[in-house]
Design goal:
Chain A is an all-alpha fold. Chain A is built from 11 helices and 2 strands, in the order ααααββααααααα. Chain A starts with a helix and ends in an 11-residue tail after the last helix. The structure holds adenosine-5'-triphosphate and magnesium ion. Chain A: GO terms for molecular function: transmembrane transporter activity.
């Protein structure tokens, strides 16, 4: 029972990360129809920026997190403008290939600067305690509750602010929005800013708990992609539910079945589900 | 169906001659090894070109199929089966797995297909690293026998212990692959692949079973990916999970895109030139991948048909200018 | 030769085609007209398997072809064009024709790999057929041209050509003159009549009334997915329901 609860707790924590990362990706894919396969690498870079400011420059954890958001936001904007915008009218597959180029750039840039080995961000809240037999740490709780707060804030932004509703308008009808005088390029930049910024938050939250490495972007990027495709491109509830769900099944699968094959669960589920429903669980149209 | 102009034929003839004489002038054994690898990769990239370049389906499980071929030959030859049996068997197994995974995967389109194949590739990679009894886990399999010597009556046997022999062996397979790809691409059968890439609803409306067409392309591509993998295992003598990793797929993709999609020369140019370039740039360390990443993005934006496509464009422009003058 | 029986198509909530029935008779030119969004193209998509009907059936010579895929329906002798000119625009004119001829042949992988005698004869047959059709289209000299170099009218012709290359019994044309000027339209109209005179039944969707009245043997009029009239051009011209549907519309456009 305790093992079970512990795995559930860990699952929720991983799920929080997946949910945030997938959320950022679903915005980009649903609103801009860009298969930003480098999204996981933005997350990875976010972890390193946090590392840079916390560990190397000795700044506090929270200021570093804020800086990471802003830096990543601008990296996202640049990526959209340089990599994806010129490919707007090209076949989808070209943007996908460009994304692979972009992720190679991000990964090797981090390797050039910090080296290929793992790094550890000092934990600001290392205090651990036991609750119902589950070992928790403050930082882990921060991941969980921080994610919830972020999701709520993002929801409020999209629904309640003018900028947010503009983004939604573009998501629903790109041509219509353009006719209404909405500057689609600005919306693209903004969406990328939010998407990369949230990825940075997820990375900053989790970086003090686990070792960060240049290779970590690839797997989480793929998982986020899978969550988005299964949950439906552009579907925010899909990304959130999918994220937590994946975190839980991975954690339980890793705990009870096999830790080595934990990642197979997500990828296997994807193949099985897509072979039954080629457009995803909630997807309507293919991209 | 298009007959090449004379100077193109001469160029190809010259390249073939240069390839045949390569062991005479290759600078050192290390570079020779790089060249042999390049030719093996060229086979794999030609295969990738069939499904991605000609058929327009971004299969990102390519290294997994390369891996099936490599592990297939490794396991079979270590069990005492002749290389000459193991190689076609491994390639066929690779094709067969493609035939099994193809129908569910090909129900999806576009990025969905890319991600499904990539997911499949990752699974294969994870399994290769963990199924210790069969694959040797993360250490892989080593001590794989070299290709079985071919006995020739009265003279002796062709053995494959030295680099020139290995080189010619691989060259023969590359030429065979090129020949088959040429037959496919320059035929009505091959046109149906391009039809699917270009306009799937129209292809469907003019009587092409687009699903079967994609599946055939996928299976052929996987056969040759497996073939390349099998050659790799026997020539290198060792395999590890990295031969099935998505990073290798990305490498193939770089070769393909930079060399030139949807042409036969492009994959060969890419697979040949880029590994050599990578060796020459070795001092750059991790900057190398940075460089190739940037190159990949720039190429797909400005020269989506890669080096070969750009050369052709230039050629056409010169021809047009000449015509305008006369 | 082809009959549509009680065909209905629902697009989540929107009924694009409703309880539609009509017949296409051997050797005629049947026109389907109706205001924008009346469901004309949808009817074609239902007849050719591009869309699955919500209910209803399609028969060709008494054979139920509902639920077949587009590539299977072509093999029953029904070929079509699309409203927006649809070609293989990365390939040459001749390639477009050869692709469309492919299903008639057995030019599969093994025959192609070994260049068998069957491959040779069928390959030649395909090339001959393609060139003949191009000749018929008046595009023989463009065989090696790439699609973007063709004029608008040539592209429209070619689109009809790739439907014709397998000598269908029934040809479905969705606005074959859309976007063309008067003079070009007349040439295409003449060409369509020539196709019919060669023995191909034609069903055409068109907005240009003058052209339709001049060429159609019968007309089916759709409005909001329903058939509101059917008859000869003269009957349609005076039909009250049709006039009302088009009121303020473009009857004489
Ligand atoms: N795939 C689809 N999904 C949802 N609605 C569709 C789809 N295709 C057509 N419709 C809708 O069905 C209705 C009929 O469309 P259709 O294209 O058949 O009209 P049409 O008569 O061909 O018009 P036009 O003269 O403009 O070509 C329209 O309201 C259209 O928006
Ligand atoms: Mg229409």
């Amino acid at each position: 029972m305790e093992l079970f609860l512990q795995q559930v707790f860990n699952g929720i924590m991983f799920g929080s990360t997946y949910a945030i990362v997938a959320l950022g990706l679903t915005l980009v894919m649903g609103i801009l129809h860009i298969p930003n396969f480098a999204h996981g690498h933005l997350y990875m870079l976010g972890g390193y920026i946090t590392y840079l400011f916390v560990a190397t420059l000795g700044l506090g954890y929270w200021p570093s997190l804020l800086i990471a958001i802003v830096v990543l936001g601008f990296v996202g904007i640049i990526m959209e403008a340089v990599v994806y915008r010129p490919l707007n009218e090209q076949p989808h597959i070209n943007a996908f290939i460009a994304a692979i180029g972009a992720l190679l750039v991000l990964e090797s840039a981090v390797e050039v600067i910090w080296g290929p080995q793992g790094m550890r961000v000092p934990n600001p809240y290392p205090h651990t305690f036991e609750f119902l037999g589950i070992i928790m740490s403050v930082q882990r709780l921060l991941v969980i509750f921080g994610a919830i707060l972020l999701i709520v804030l993002l929801h409020l932004f999209l629904k309640k602010t003018l900028t947010g509703t503009t983004i939604e308008a573009v998501a629903q009808n790109r041509e219509g929005a353009m006719l209404n005088g909405i500057n689609v390029n600005r919306v693209s930049s903004l969406t990328f800013f939010i998407s990369s910024g949230t990825a940075a938050v997820a990375a900053s939250f989790i970086a003090p708990i686990f070792v960060i490495s240049p290779a970590m972007g690839a797997i989480i990027g793929m998982k986020a992609f899978i969550i988005v495709l299964l949950g439906g491109m552009g579907s925010i509830p899909g990304a959130i539910i999918g994220g937590y769900f994946l975190g839980l099944i991975e954690s339980l699968g890793g705990g009870y079945v096999s830790a080595a094959y934990k990642d197979v669960i997500a990828f296997g589920a994807l193949i099985v589900i897509f072979s039954i429903k080629p457009t995803g669980l909630f997807g309507k149209k293919e991209g | 169906m298009i007959t090449k102009p004379l100077h193109t034929k001469l160029l190809y003839g010259f390249i073939l001659l240069a390839a045949l004489l390569l062991p005479l002038y290759v600078p050192d054994p290390y570079m020779f090894q790089v060249v042999i690898m390049s030719l093996i990769f060229a086979i794999a990239v030609l295969a990738m070109n069939l499904i991605i370049g000609f058929t327009g389906q971004a299969s990102l499980a390519h290294a997994a199929f390369f891996g099936f071929g490599a592990y297939g030959v490794a396991i079979m030859t270590k069990a005492g089966i002749s290389f000459w049996l193991a190689l076609p068997a491994a390639a066929s197994i690779s094709a067969l797995i493609g035939l099994i995974i193809g129908p569910p995967a090909l129900r999806t389109r576009g990025s969905y297909f890319a991600i499904v194949t990539l997911a499949f590739g990752v699974i294969v990679w994870i399994v290769a690293g963990n199924w210790v009894q069969v694959t040797g886990g993360h250490n892989g399999i080593f001590g794989i026998p070299r290709p079985t010597p071919i006995p020739i009556p009265f003279i002796g046997a062709i053995e494959f212990f030295d680099q020139p022999a290995q080189y010619y062996l691989v060259l023969v397979f590359l030429l065979l692959t090129l020949f088959i790809m040429h037959r496919i691409v320059y035929s009505i059968f091959g046109l149906t692949f391009m039809a699917v890439r270009n306009n799937e609803p129209l292809a469907d409306a003019v009587g092409i079973n687009t699903f079967t067409t994609k599946l055939i392309s996928f299976v052929i591509a996987n056969f040759f990916a497996g073939l390349a993998g099998g050659l790799y295992a026997a020539i290198i003598g060792a395999v590890s999970p990295s031969v099935a990793a998505h990073l290798l797929t990305f490498n193939f993709l770089i070769f393909l895109i930079l060399g030139g999609m949807a042409s036969l020369a492009g994959p060969v140019v890419g697979a040949f030139a880029i590994p050599i370039l990578m060796e020459l740039l070795q001092d750059l360390g991790h900057f190398r991948m940075l460089f190739f990443g940037v190159l990949l993005v720039a190429t797909i934006i400005y020269f989506p048909r890669g080096f070969v496509g750009a050369v052709r464009q230039l050629n056409d422009k010169i021809a047009a200018r000449r015509q305008a003058k006369s | 030769m082809l009959s549509v029986k009680y065909l209905t198509k629902n697009f989540d909530g929107l009924v694009a085609v409703k309880e539609l029935s009509f017949d296409i008779r051997e050797g005629e030119i049947l026109a389907i007209i109706g205001p924008n969004g009346a469901g004309k193209s949808t009817v074609f998509n239902l007849m050719t398997g591009t869309l699955a009907p919500t209910s209803g059936k399609v028969f060709i010579h008494e054979e139920n072809i509902t639920g077949l895929k587009p590539y299977q329906i072509v093999k029953k002798g029904v070929a079509r064009t699309f409203q927006t000119t649809s070609l293989f625009d990365q390939l040459r004119v001749i390639d477009n024709m050869l692709i469309a001829y492919k299903w008639r042949t057995r030019l599969g992988f093994w025959n192609t790999l070994f260049h068998t005698p069957a491959w040779k004869s069928q390959h030649d047959q395909a090339a001959r057929n393609a060139l003949e059709t191009l000749d018929f289209l008046g595009l023989a000299d463009k065989a090696l041209a790439f699609i973007p170099t063709l004029s608008q009218e040539e592209q429209k012709r070619l689109a009809i050509g790739i439907a014709l290359v397998c000598k269908p019994k029934l040809l479905l044309l969705d606005e074959p003159t859309g976007g063309l000027i008067q003079e070009e339209t007349e040439r295409i109209a003449l060409f369509i009549k020539k196709v019919r005179d060669q023995g191909t039944t034609v069903c055409i969707i068109e907005h240009k009334m003058q052209m339709i009245m001049g060429m159609a043997d019968r007309i089916v009029v759709l409005n909001y997915g329903q058939k509101i009239a059917e008859g000869t051009p003269d009957e349609i011209k005076t039909n009250q329901a049709v006039i009302e549907a088009y009121l303020g519309g473009d009857v004489h456009a």
